[in-house]
Automatic annotation (TrEMBL):
Taxon lineage: Bacteria, Pseudomonadati, Planctomycetota, Planctomycetia, Planctomycetia incertae sedis
GO-annotated molecular function: phosphatidylcholine lysophospholipase activity
Keyword Transmembrane tagged: no
Keyword vocabulary terms for this entry: Hydrolase
Signal peptide: none
Keyword Hydrolase appears in the UniProt entry: yes
Name recorded for this polypeptide: GDSL-like Lipase/Acylhydrolase
Ranges of residues in domain SGNH hydrolase-type esterase: 122-365
């Protein structure tokens, strides 16, 4: 008997919807595994081709690389540009570590205990306590002074190395959850006048937050595969070589202005210009008061030789003095506290570890100057 021909039914041989979905799922998983595997491989071998535009420099190439590595004292953060890395050892104070909330000193409960008065100090490396132990910092000593006056006080050391007032405002917005009663602002000593790396701090912070930050920028900053694609296009195929050269030349031109930024005729762009510093003070004081706290300004001292050699720094001091009068804010003049008195004080240069950073004795003097002002300000709210 001859074999019967096989009858093919188009209905039975057509892929069912479940088979099609299964095939699509397998293909999607395979593609995802391939992409993730390639991304992982590029990270393992250390490939990098980030955008060379200096606008992306957060704190300088070397420090940026250290922060991205997950080592060192700081980490890159959105809004503030950088912050102390929780758990990081503080190199100038062996045995001390940044607490889990990202600031120096004891942990604090977010909810303020009943009857406690909290003082938040914000500033740069001097407020962080560069090269001194935490117990020697003016923030810690201020707490002891206030307790000695009968106040149940807690202080929070919100200062960060390298900070300007622009970053300080962003940090206040984060730390305001601790409900401080008093906020001490100690900015304007030196960081504001330093050269901007690509952009001044205000537009750089906005850029980092995503204002004017394209999706391509975000992808390139975070994906090694995207960086590889840019490498193939730009470096191997010459897609944007002229544009890259122009950016490099602009960066070199900006770098030529580094140094001498304390001079009155320095031609470069500063991180925060004096007039912007004054505007920041207005904004900062307004937000502190809106949060129900009392603002106190602290004009940080500098060694006399620095002020002579870099007179531009005094423009920031004058902005502080003008803001104190304009906004009716208490001002503690650290420069005046450090003035030499042969009977009561040593030569003020002995109160510094370098041009800017107070010694332990210098911190003690600052705390002593702050305490009565803080007490008076608090008393005014209870009358």
């Amino acid at each position: 008997m001859a074999p019967q021909p096989r009858i093919i039914s188009p209905m039975t041989d057509r892929p069912t919807p479940s088979k099609a979905r299964r095939a699509l799922l397998v293909s999607s998983i395979s593609l995802a595994v391939m992409v993730l595997g390639s991304e992982l491989l590029l990270r393992v071998v250390g490939f990098s081709n980030e955008e060379p535009d200096p606008v992306y420099a957060v704190w300088g190439n070397e420090l940026d690389a250290q922060m991205k590595s997950g080592r060192g004292l700081h980490q890159i953060t959105i809004g503030t540009l950088w912050e102390p890395r929780p758990g990081a050892e503080i190199p100038m104070a062996p045995g001390e570590f940044v607490n889990s909330a990202g600031f120096r000193g004891p942990e604090r409960e977010v909810a303020k205990p009943d009857g406690v008065v909290r003082v938040l100090t914000l500033g740069d490396s001097s407020s962080f306590g560069m090269k001194v132990a935490y117990d020697e910092c003016y923030t810690a000593q201020l707490e002891q002074n206030l307790r000695g006056a009968g106040l149940d006080a807690e202080t929070i050391a919100g200062g960060v190395i390298g900070y300007t007032i622009a970053q300080g405002l962003e940090r206040f917005r984060k730390l305001s959850v601790y409900s401080p009663d008093v906020v001490v602002l100690a900015f304007g000593a030196v960081n504001e006048l330093y050269p901007a790396q690509g952009l001044p701090d205000r537009p750089k912070i906005a850029h980092q937050k995503g204002v004017g930050f394209s999706k391509t920028d975000v992808l390139r900053a975070n994906s090694k595969l995207v960086q590889l694609a840019h490498y193939v296009r730009d470096d191997l195929l010459g897609g944007r070589e002229a544009d890259r050269i122009a950016k490099y030349e602009a960066w070199v031109k900006a770098e030529q202005h580094v140094g001498g930024q304390g001079a009155l005729d320095w031609p470069g762009t500063r991180r925060v210009a004096p007039e912007d510093f004054g505007a920041y003070l207005d904004e900062f004081v307004g937000e502190i008061r809106a949060a129900g706290a009392i603002p106190v300004l602290l004009s940080m001292p500098r060694q006399r030789v620095y002020e002579v050699e870099s007179p531009f720094c005094l423009k920031y001091t004058k902005q502080l003095e003008a803001a104190a009068e304009r906004l009716d804010v208490p001002l503690v003049d650290g420069r005046d506290l450090f003035k030499w008195d042969e009977v009561e004080r040593p030569d003020p240069d002995q109160l510094f570890l370098d041009h800017f950073h107070p010694s332990a004795e210098g911190h003690q003097i600052l705390a002593g100057g702050l305490a009565p002002v803080v007490l008076e300000a608090l008393a005014g709210t209870r009358d």
